[in-house]
């Protein structure tokens, strides 16, 4: 099935995402720098861009920059004059991302903050940096519940929160799993489900990145 999923993604890219040489260069630059190839797929990136546009997002928060691939897609979806803040643990990754953002022509729209995401989130709350219109969580899975809790402090009614990699090849349904990533996602899902004042769902996905899925939460619904 993986061959079929990958072929369909390639077909969709050829028909609906032609001419993305800049982004292919971003992926190549990240690989050359030794970054893991765990960025979203092109079709997923385009989805994020369209979601941002649909939200009319002027302020976007991203958790997990890596080489800046998803950051670029999100920045492309910003409303005119909008800003994106992205949080990254590793300075090496941030340096690669800065170069990639410049290559894609969106560097002036993006601020990269380096350090532990929880510390950066606390600083954003202290600064009164919110509210954000769209939050994209794609960082270390064991901390997703904490990231969600902090994201709520930076949200407003109508804020959309998207969390990637919440299906884990179907392992999320295994109540006996001892995998820290699966446990982190299950804890996140349980917290979201128990949080009043939000509406949420999770969608399973297949494609070039395999079998996974994302959660979508709307605050104040």
Give an overview in words.
- The protein has eight helices and seven strands; from the N terminus they run αααβαβαβαβαβαββ.
- The chain is an alpha/beta fold.
- The chain has a single domain, classed as Rossmann fold (3-Layer(aba) Sandwich), CATH 3.40.50.150.
- The protein has a seven-stranded mixed β-sheet with strand order 3-2-1-4-5-7-6, with helices on both faces.
- It is globular, with a radius of gyration of 17 Å.
- The chain starts with a helix and ends with a strand.
From the spread of the alpha carbons, the general shape counts as globular
- What's the end-to-end separation, in Å? 37 Å
- The number of distinct β-strands equals 7
CATH architecture heading: 3-Layer(aba) Sandwich
Q: What is the CATH topology?
A: Rossmann fold
Helical proportion?
40-55%
Tell me the strand percentage band: 15-25%
The CATH superfamily title: Vaccinia Virus protein VP39
Mean pLDDT across all residues, rounded? 96
According to CATH, what is the class? Alpha Beta
Gyration radius over CA: 17 Å
What is this structure, in a nutshell?
The protein has 221 residues and is an alpha/beta fold.
Keywords, please?
seven-stranded mixed β-sheet; about 220 residues; 7 strands; globular
Q: How would the blueprint of this fold be written?
A:
Elements (H helix, E strand, L loop, with lengths): L1 H15 L4 H12 L9 H14 L3 E5 L5 H8 L6 E6 L2 H13 L6 E5 L2 H11 L6 E4 L6 H10 L6 E5 L15 H15 L3 E10 L2 E10 L2
Parallel strand pairs: 1-2, 1-4, 2-3, 4-5
Antiparallel strand pairs: 5-7, 6-7
